Hints:
Layout: H1 6-16, H2 20-29, H3 34-52, E1 59-66, E2 70-78, H4 81-84, H5 87-102, H6 107-112, H7 121-132, E3 137-145, E4 149-156, E5 163-164, E6 166-173, H8 178-195, H9 207-222, H10 228-242
Antiparallel strand pairs: 1-2, 1-5, 2-3, 4-6
Helix pairs in contact: 1-2, 1-3, 2-3, 3-7, 5-7, 9-10
Amino acid sequence: MAQISASMVKELRGRTGAGMLDCKKALVESEGDIEAAGEWLRKKGLAAAAKKSGRVTAEGLVGLRTDGARGALVEVNAETDFVARKEHFQAFVGAAADVALNVGGNLDALISADHPEGGTVDEQHVLLIATIGESIKIRRSVGLSVEEGVVASYMHNSAAPGLGKIGVLVGMKSAAEPEALQQLGKQVAMHVAASSPRAVTAEDLDAETVEKEREILREQAAGSGKPPEIVEKMIEGRLRKFY
């Protein structure tokens, strides 16, 4: 049986973030091989993840990264707000945002991409579940880029640099000074965070959404007792307010 030293346990804990007892058990099972112990912990995490996958994940953080004319957002959910304040969780979201920026925000590419700490993002995700003990889900990711101009951003309710509850990206297509575009873009992004608009312009709205709103307004106006032509004018006026 291999001799497991405290320094070995410490090294494995530093690599994986797993608990001391789990690290020691992993080293015992792998006869002191640190690489194999890391794999053992991942497998243990996979089993734990399967048991926890059905739990509700209503908390978490958004990670945001920008680099001139491109940007990315990734949302990672957890069961409790307490976990969102944990260093390991925040580090994972930040690293996921870095990767998301490099893969253009594509979720499938993000999950299968290499993680800076080793393995894939998915493998580190499983290890995080084993370490923290909650169901954690990489819910969605998005990327934005412009050929000329900047991608500006805003993070609301920030928990740490580039991490928070609401993240917004705004693409500013222009040959104007980047600094001026960033300032304007941030103002627009703050407005988006506050009002949660469905589209940039009324013409960009989904036709089904507009028709549904029109039907609701028609039902409201029908009880007014006004002539049909007046009712239609009322509907159009209220639609402009909706826009």
